[in-house]
Amino acid sequence: MNTNRRRWMQLAALGAPGVLVGGCWQRSHDATYGDKGSSPSEALPVVATTGMIADMVRSIGGDAVQLTQLIPAGVDPHLYKPIRDDVVAIVHSKIVFYNGLKLEGRMSDVLGAGSKSQRVHVALSDALDPSSLIGEASSQEVDPHIWMDVSMWSKTIGSIRDTLGGFLVHHRERLERAAGELIEQLEALDRYGKEAIGRIPKPQRILISSHDAFQYFGRRYGLRVEGVQGISTASEAGLQRIPELIELIGANSVPAVFKESSVAGKMIDAVIEGAASRRIELRVGKELYSDALGPVGSGAETYIGMMKHNFDAVAEALSGG
Predict the structure, then answer these.
(1) Which helix (H) or strand (E) holds 33?
(2) Which residue ranges make up each domain of the chain?
(3) Are 304 and 312 within 8 A, CB to CB?
(4) Of the candidates 126, 136, 219, 253, which lies 20 to 30 Å from 38 by C-alpha distance?
């Protein structure tokens, strides 16, 4: 593929976020799981916890994978309580892909359901250099929102490709090609994010949202990030946090704050009301997608669509657009 055509495809993917990234293919009749499997002419049963993970598995595995996503779109993974169908899907799967770093806090028992002898469990966070993570491992408070840095999330693609390839031995070439295309698309998305955030005046590069899900986003793209709640939405926001944020907003003329699609917005409402009582004009930017993809038709139902929406929403609101 020549350079111009490749770049056109990358930009097209960014401009049409509702389209699934990566390649899909029709499963051939002689497909098998490979050395670890035993079921010819069947798709490989795979489980993914979140929509961000499921989107990448689908993009790389295509029709050779029978994919079950446990946590629905728009649902907070910190608080999600597994149901019986989740256990059944895991027990019958060959691979379970999950984020790790305690993101799926209430699913730890379910993720280990049944015998593991015929199943591989893959935490995508294990693919990353521990020194690149935000937080203190000693205190077990490591930020799990690794997908918010596109360059970090891209580094987990190899884990998906190689794990699928261990079962789908006849599809390894296709897996390699689809993974390579996805990496190129995420490189283009990463550049897009830097350019979008770079348009915000430097004094206004302060992102205030419902909970502390955007630290990787801020570190990569040059924003100060402040959440009303902590890393997990299961934590209680201290009452002193709201006046602290109002002081920050007033001192830096922050034009907007943000709600998140998977988190209740009442704390942000309290910030807005508190700012108004001090005659600080403040508005709410477009809703951000933090812990979950958007529903079908939202434009944020894929990982690329989700992140492009966030880049555009933050750049528009903090630039005063």
Answers:
(1) none
(2) 3-191, 195-318
(3) no
(4) 126
